[in-house]
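Tutorial handout. Part one gives the primary structure; part two gives the three-dimensional structure as tokens.
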Amino acid sequence: MVRDPSRREEPPPPSDVLDVLSDDAAQRIIAALEEPMTASQISEECDIPLSTTYRKLDAMTDADLLNESTEIRRDGQHTTRYAVAFESVTVGLTDDRDLVVEFERPEGGADERLAHLWSQVREET
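Part two.
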């Protein structure tokens, strides 16, 4: 299942985001993701074992820091690619003194807007 932070009903808990951002391997992954990459490519680029890479990617996606997308191939071997889903992360306090995390997201390209529109059409039919 491909996860899209923009469709999430509630933001992740601040502790999840801060835990991931404080992780050295996650920081290396974010730095390496100048363009969408597969888990194998990330593992090789960052010199992180593949099993660890998958755990980090899951945690980062759950924390809304990464987008997942599926690349459809003619041979039927579809692959998941990961991309950074934020331009900045801000941690602040609510009036009740609770931590809150806010993301500044990059403006999606035409293909992302079309994919989002198509998913909305599928939901309505």
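Part three, for discussion. Residues 110-124 form the longest helix (15 residues). The mean pLDDT is 85.
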